[in-house]
Amino acid sequence: MCSQAAENEMESRMKPDGEKTEPPGYQRVVLKNASPHHYLKVRLLLEDESTRVSAVELKRFIISCLRGLHGEVGAALEVDVLKYDEETLSALLRVHSRGLVKLWSSLTLQGSYQNQACAFRVLQRDAAYSRSRSRS
Amino acid sequence: MAVFMDLNVLFSADRKRMQSLIETAAHLGFSTVAINYVFEPTAKKKQEVPSPMPINELIGQLPVVQGRSRPIRVLNRLTVVMSEASHFRPNATEYRAFDLLAVQPTTEKLFHTTCMLCDVDIICISVTEKLPFFFKRAPINGAIDRGVVFELSYASALRDTTMRCYTIANSVCLMESCKGKNIILSSAAEKALELRGPYDITNLGVLFGLSDADSKEAVSSTCRAVLLHAETRKTASGIVYTMKSQQEVLEDSAGSEAPESQKRPKTPGEWGFGRGRTHS
């Protein structure tokens, strides 16, 4: 996919020559056209903090959130979990810009995960992948 | 910069829970929260209006708002659930202790009177049941002209899917008449996990039928307008207000409370000339 290639390119630009340089505080990204994807950095908060959630379970939970609020149309949205950290339960999601409101609202309105209270905290929302990366 | 507010956090006697609620709100970026005391009068027996607990007694140290480096502001708010016209007493002294005054009318007739006549700041729209009446244009326009706002809360939508249906249906129904003006979105949260961040709520507003700009206003500038409106209720249109001078407080500390009618001057010494604020 072309967008995947663009991401890889950006990633390589971030780390020149494999050397660990301090990333700049900000980076200016100019988008000529509206960006096709939006990136959401989310963290799942659970009532019982010892619960383990694997990446597959998270993806399934996100799809069930979408199905719960928007039905089949919501479940058909293409959502990708690009990165996931099991320790902190934080993930980086990619979604088509058209589906951003649907995904975000279904994450917001989800109040329980396996019969325990939960909350998705959206830490960051961006149209450019590199910016969501660099500020982490 | 927009300042975000959540004007409805349910009161509970559990101090620990209140503390975690307010800390979470500050962490999410809300610079003002209002603790809501719900008062539901019943026909059978006379009930006492709850009195607000002093803020410093409830939470020791106020947490710092994320990104603003100043402590969160905590207000008190009373919600009167009205099923009869007599439940709301316009000049009750018990209401004075609260910063904000809200009513939740349950019938169409009461909705009309609260919109057109009652001196309140917020009208709550029920989100836990199917709307028992249809929103008419006349009372809603009257309320908008008077600067009264309508409140939609989202915490019940997190608990149950049926409630979620009602929340969305009622809010879309309301948007048809008021066109996104004078709406506030608040949480009505009991637990810290039921709170959501201000940008999440802005996005939720889009789902409720608001436009992008209106839904951002629903958590920021409309809330500020409510606070200013509440101030005008206590003062003479926000321009002139009365306050006790320090000496008098010392002299009759055992005496009476605040002056009966704040609009009537008693002695010239009691007048303070206001901060020049007019309500928006």
TrEMBL record, chain A:
Pfam families: RNase_P_Rpp14 (PF01900). Coiled coil: none annotated. Residues 10-22 have a biased composition (Basic and acidic residues). One of its GO terms (cellular component) is nucleolus. Residues 1-24 are annotated as: Disordered. One of its GO terms (biological process) is tRNA 5'-leader removal. Keywords: tRNA processing. The keyword tRNA processing applies. The keyword Protease does not apply. GO terms for molecular function: ribonuclease P RNA binding. Belongs to the eukaryotic/archaeal RNase P protein component 2 family. This is Uncharacterized protein. It comes from Crenichthys baileyi (White River springfish).
Automatic annotation (TrEMBL), chain B:
GO terms for biological process: rRNA processing; translation; tRNA processing. Gene3D superfamilies: Metal-dependent hydrolases. Transmembrane segments: none annotated. Residues 271-280 have a biased composition (Gly residues). It is found in: Nucleus, Nucleolus. Keywords: Acetylation, Nucleus, Phosphoprotein, rRNA processing, tRNA processing. Residues 250-280 are annotated as: Disordered. Its main location: nucleus. Belongs to the eukaryotic/archaeal RNase P protein component 3 family. Component of nuclear RNase P and RNase MRP ribonucleoproteins. RNase P consists of a catalytic RNA moiety and about 10 protein subunits; POP1, POP4, POP5, POP7, RPP14, RPP21, RPP25, RPP30, RPP38 and RPP40. Within the RNase P complex, POP1, POP7 and RPP25 form the 'finger' subcomplex, POP5, RPP14, RPP40 and homodimeric RPP30 form the 'palm' subcomplex, and RPP21, POP4 and RPP38 form the 'wrist' subcomplex. All subunits of the RNase P complex interact with the catalytic RNA. Several subunits of RNase P are also part of the RNase MRP complex. Component of ribonuclease P, a ribonucleoprotein complex that generates mature tRNA molecules by cleaving their 5'-ends. Also a component of the MRP ribonuclease complex, which cleaves pre-rRNA sequences. This is Ribonuclease P protein subunit p30.
